[in-house]
Queue: 2 jobs
Job 1
Amino acid sequence: MSFYDEVYDIVKLIPKGKVATYGQIAKILASPKASRAVGYALHFNPAPGIIPCHRVVNRSGALAPAFAFGGREVQAQLLAQEGVPCDDDYVVDLKVYQWNGEE
DNA sequence: ACCATGACTCCAT
DNA sequence: CATGGAGCCATGG
């Protein structure tokens, strides 16, 4: 699962107050279209608490609807706590909070 | 190698 | 704007 390991590593090094999209991570890894595999890797989430999956959002900047480590509201709280306020629809302002450290 | 699945993304209606 | 279908990638049986 080296691919997944890469995903976890990327997610783990996302700076506080920033979020990354599946497509962005996929692009950083190897293929910009591996967003599915990336989401899958996060779904495995082998290290909850260590892997800030809440900092990973979809291309719209919205939190994963199927997120299940506590609920979207919890994720929203975490993001707000990190300094990333989210919309009522759990949508983050990507043009401001999207992580661009690998771009 | 093939088929099925999935926290995605894009295009068409 | 909501819904549906197709494409892409990695994993597991």
Job 2
Amino acid sequence: MVISYDAKYFHPLHTLDCGQIFRFEPFKEGFLAFSGVKACYVHSDGAKTFVECDDGDYFYNFFDLARDYSKIVEMAKGYSIPLLTRSAESCSGLRLLNQQKEEMIYSFIISQNNNIPRIKGIISRICAGLGEKREFMGVEYYTFPSTHALAGAGAEFFKRAGCGYRDKFLDETAKRIDKEGIGNLEKLNTSALKQALMGYKGVGAKVADCIALFGFSKRDSFPVDTWIEKIYKEDFGGALTDRNKICDYFLGLFGENSGYIQQYLFYGKRLNL
DNA sequence: TACCAGGACGTGC
DNA sequence: GCACGTCATGGT
């Protein structure tokens, strides 16, 4: 099936390239995007953006299409913060994704002290090694591995995939989730969820915020990484150095809209807007 | 060569 | 509780 949507508020590149997802690749006029075991083809003609897939309900939710981003953009511009206004205007088609919880946990453990191209390569190799081979629109791809498969792989597998010192974190966390499941994480409010996530090996404050934001749709999260630190100093004139306090500062400023604002700022800064 | 990348852990105080 | 050194890897 094919979903059609106003391109002004759904820009494939901005949505996929802003750092929230690590599994996508150029394809024809747009991109193939992968989530869990599923795949879709997303492309735009400038007026409309199209999503072609086998599971419309899944990707309607995945791309957050029930939400009116014209309001999000106006909300962001309402703060009259130069970088934020430039970002919201230039990236009005950036949408926050609703992704798979466990995929986000493992992906963002890999992301710590790492760069995005390398993160994508590592995740790609892990999928190729432990995922299930499938085909979509004539292209072969691998699903994201189940926790059970990850738990049985052993730390050596992650080491060979290029994870570096994070190999033991992945191994330990996968084994724990394989044993316990993540049902206990459901129904928690954002701060309780963050604390619970930080109980997994390899998950600190920033990684927990990313998992909550992209995996659990907790938009009142504000991940603080090196780029946000730079933005805090250069664009907000801040003097704090503790990342937890910087996080609290932004949460106080943007509240329930923190996640959207954070992505505009992060991506806008990376694009040097 | 030293520094950076969507940081977190373990130790010592 | 807080500061600090350390942790692989690949790119500049």
